[in-house]
Amino acid sequence: MVMTNxxxxxxxxxxxxxxxxxxxxxxxxxxxxxxxxxxxxxxSFKFYENGSIIYNGLKGKAGYSGVMIEAPSYIALMKKDxxxxxxxxxxxxxxxxxxxxxxxxxxxCWITLDNVDDETKKNLFGxxxxxxxxxxxxxxxxxxxxxxPETTSGRYTxxxxxxxxxxxxxxxxxxxxxxxxxxxxxxxxxxxxxxxSQPWRFVMEDHNVVLYMEKSDEDSRSxxxxxxxxxxxxxxxxxxxxxxxWSVILEDQDKYLKVAKFSM
Length: 264
Known about the structure:
With 264 residues, the chain is α+β, with helices and mostly antiparallel strands. It has 2 domains: 3-139, NADH Oxidase; 154-263, NADH Oxidase. 37% of the residues lie in helices and 22% in strands. The protein has 9 helices and 9 strands. The chain has helices spanning 3-8, 23-39, 51-58, 84-103, 118-125, 158-161, 173-179, 182-188, 219-238; strands spanning 43-48, 73-79, 107-112, 132-139, 162-164, 200-205, 208-214, 246-253, 256-263. Strand 6 and strand 7 form a beta hairpin. The chain is globular. Pfam families: TM1586_NiRdase. This is Nitroreductase. Residues 6-237 form the Putative nitroreductase TM1586 domain.
């Protein structure tokens, strides 16, 4: 799947069929989790094939508007600590895994556990369960799709998130076209973020893309969003032959956090 197309059509599903997930898909996801956990020490995953355990444990405590999402299976993400880089990796690797799930023709939905008490988390996820802030529900979706065109209004335009040399300096579409990044920036606007805050700002500096985050009262949540957008940018860059990786910086700069640099 072309990543730019995937992101522009990205959807989150809240209703799932009461249907077991195909065994080959289950094994593929388990193998992919093992691969991801070899890449990082800051996050780990727990796979719950029998989704009723998680659904019943979180019913009335998590979900949307107090309604827990019922799905055939769930994956819990455990974050090592609350350091900034761990928050970045939470978004990066959770969305990396989510993309693999969707590539298996499954549907998925992130669920935050903000209002779930520590005792419930320990009962469900073990002694280290207090470090679980997110679970992914997945299966074969039915019903209304989210992130459809009518629900993606309010997205920033490119001139609001992409700049030259410093935030606030305009960069032309022609210049972005020359670098091959025009389509990437046009698509990355559709990356999901908490409350649609879209905290990311990109600055073109010579042959580098520097990523900034707009600070807020929810910086930890925004850092997770930044990890998501970093993943999508890397994947889309591969489609134009740029196989770089973000170099993490995490440097405070007044209203912004200088997060990372991508060398072109």
